[in-house]
Amino acid sequence: MPELPEAETIVRGLRPRIVGSTMATMEVVHADVLTCPPEAFRERVSGHAIEGVGRRGKNVVIRLAGGGVVVVNLGMTGRLFPLASGEPPPVEASHPAVLFRFREGNTLLFDDTRRFGRVEHLNPSEWRERSRALGPEPLERRFSVARLGEGLSTSRAPIRSWLLDQRRVAGIGNIYANEALHRAGVDPRRAAGSLDPSEIRRLHRSIRSVLREAIEAGGTTIRDFRGADGVRGEFVRDLAVYGKQSEPCPRCRTVIRRVVFGGRSAFLCPRCQPAADGVGSD
Ligand SMILES: [Zn+2]
Fold first, then answer.
1. pTM exceeds 0.85 for this model
2. Does the pLDDT value for residue 246 go beyond 60?
3. What residues are labeled active site?
């Protein structure tokens, strides 16, 4: 499932290909990825030029002239392909859901095999409200050690669940939560409020370093993810624990364990991430 680094990789690939293009028409193959009827959507976007492409959390945000935005949540398998005029969709785009046709002849294709993705148009106030409901961007200055510590202090949720909560911090999913916790030496099952100041500092630093390195590597491709240029995310080679159960920890060679809680797998090194407050002592 695409997380912050994958969305950022897509944004960087799209920017030079679609900024400045003007929405002409929209072809809807599967209306279930839209949050309003296709006709209403078409009316809201057509004639508007694309002013910029950005990201908020795991969402790709396409800014239109006039103030509205098209927000794309990639869900599990959503992909965005910018196509030049006359360029056919790549073979891997086998489940097209929506095609934005631009006046300049180019196209932006949203393809989604499992169709958990969402494409919606929001006016400026709707977008402000949506964005406000999300936590801070972990790579921005606003996300400080103090702010992280404050947020953690009152929570009894497992730290991994806290990190996945988009209202707490935006953009982190299961891959990078597990990787950051391993780097920080914190067991994913620990209560968020039980981390001491040095653990909070280490976690803050680990979240940022793992996200930055993953962006640098073009994200992580487990199966479906591709950047806007069709390239696989190479951070998969740098994963220390995610999906590595029964393999040795790259730091201490202890065998990585997989545990399931909150309906999701967590991966940890029992030596680098010692259990505290009695969890996981089985
Ligand atoms: Zn280890």
1. yes
2. yes
3. 2-3, 58, 264
